[in-house]
Design a protein that fits this description.
Blueprint (H helix, E strand, L loop, with lengths): L1 E3 L6 E3 L2 H13 L5 E4 L6 E4 L1 H4 L3 H8 L1
Antiparallel strand pairs: 1-2, 3-4
Amino acid sequence: MQIKCSACLMPFSLNKEEIAEMVELFKSDPNVHYDAHCPKCRKATRITKKQLALNPIYKKMLEG
């Protein structure tokens, strides 16, 4: 999953383990957010369930 840092605007990707952790977090409580940390500036970028569900692959993971 490609995202862009909200502070320094550097694009970076999340690995499969982080995505699996995020999906489990959203399955347990849909109102929370996941903090993805930028490898360059180490600032957190919030990812909501709605943003994750925009991708059809991750949407199926959330439903299953």
